[in-house]
Amino acid sequence: MHSPYSLGPPPNRRLDGCNRITSLFPSVSITDIGCNRHSEFEAENRDPPSIPNFIFRFLPSSSPDVSQFFPFQISTSSSGEEPCYAGVPMSSIVEQGLGVGDVISLLWFKRSLPRYCTKFIEICIMLCADHGPCASGAHNTIVTARAGKDLVSSLVSGLLTIGPRFGGAIDDAARYFKDVYDGGLTPYEFVEGMKKKGIRVPGIGHRIKRGDNRDKRVELLQLFARTNFPSVKYMEYAVQVETYTLSKANNLVLNVDGAIGSLFLDLLAGSGMFTKQEIDEIVEIGYLNGLFVLARSIGLIGHTFDQKRLKQPLYHHPWEDVLYTK
Ligand SMILES: CC(=O)SCCNC(=O)CCNC(=O)[C@H](O)C(C)(C)COP(=O)(O)OP(=O)(O)OC[C@H]1O[C@@H](n2cnc3c(N)ncnc32)[C@H](O)[C@@H]1OP(=O)(O)O
């Protein structure tokens, strides 16, 4: 019995996909791509090699995308001598001294991005890793760890606070900044239009930061991008939006979500590594909140360990904060 989570598509669907491929590419035989060998692997109680790996080895590089034939697509191969991320072997990743930004670029974006892009991803991860115990996510994690729960429970309890008000506005910021910049709206038209619709501008506003107490993380991201990116047009637009919102209220700064959202648009558009269609898809699907989720997991895990190491007792919130009503 094939589980959808273990070996990939069951044999009949594998064969079906392979048959369609061999009919499309007469130079490729079904033996070449290993489809007729499923029972052989099963008899030896081994995982069959992934079909796409076989196929990509035999198809000419100009072949159309065959991935559409497969209900399961992978970018991590575990069937060869060593695991590969989007076709790049682990040894090559280690030997080239690549970092976690490169791994993210391979696994999320399915391509090797230039070093300044992967460095930018790494800076996002480093800067968003933690923001102290009072932020929503850390607070939840701490309370959960102190209730005696395990690492995973404590981590996810914190992660579940990530959303439109806390760390989860990067995708929406990117969507809006892209739409309004590409559509030629002025910052004034954008902000006032949002106000009319009763929607807060994603990427703008902070609970603590103010116009006269800027977010250092935003400044560091902007400095890196201004120095290394070929173009920062979306970021400059976001800064113009901030200038306008700050003229309305001192808390309406460009926050870290807005900075990452606008700068990632610049990375996608300026690197020359993505087609317009791919950029639209990345923004529409919403890849970018993943950066905050991944980054903040580092800090939340640290908060869990702190509580365990310090043997902190069950948390109880101070009575005096609570207004009791009838
Ligand atoms: C790492 C991070 O978490 S960064 C934050 C990511 N989230 C966003 O970018 C979403 C948009 N921003 C917001 O929703 C808010 O600014 C928050 C949640 C981040 C902070 O909110 P708070 O400091 O609690 O501000 P509060 O909710 O009290 O709002 C104060 C005033 O500013 C206005 N305001 C706050 N943010 C915005 C915004 N993004 N756009 C328009 N107006 C805003 C509010 O309408 C409110 O005005 P009102 O009292 O006249 O209604």
Automatic annotation (TrEMBL):
<dbReference type="InterPro" id="IPR016143">
    <property type="entry name" value="Citrate_synth-like_sm_a-sub"/>
</dbReference>
<dbReference type="InterPro" id="IPR016142">
    <property type="entry name" value="Citrate_synth-like_lrg_a-sub"/>
</dbReference>
<dbReference type="InterPro" id="IPR036969">
    <property type="entry name" value="Citrate_synthase_sf"/>
</dbReference>
<protein>
    <recommendedName>
        <fullName>ATP citrate synthase</fullName>
    </recommendedName>
</protein>
<dbReference type="GO" id="GO:0003878">
    <property type="term" value="F:ATP citrate synthase activity"/>
</dbReference>
<dbReference type="InterPro" id="IPR002020">
    <property type="entry name" value="Citrate_synthase"/>
</dbReference>
<dbReference type="GO" id="GO:0005829">
    <property type="term" value="C:cytosol"/>
</dbReference>
<dbReference type="Pfam" id="PF00285">
    <property type="entry name" value="Citrate_synt"/>
</dbReference>
<dbReference type="GO" id="GO:0006085">
    <property type="term" value="P:acetyl-CoA biosynthetic process"/>
</dbReference>
<dbReference type="GO" id="GO:0006633">
    <property type="term" value="P:fatty acid biosynthetic process"/>
</dbReference>
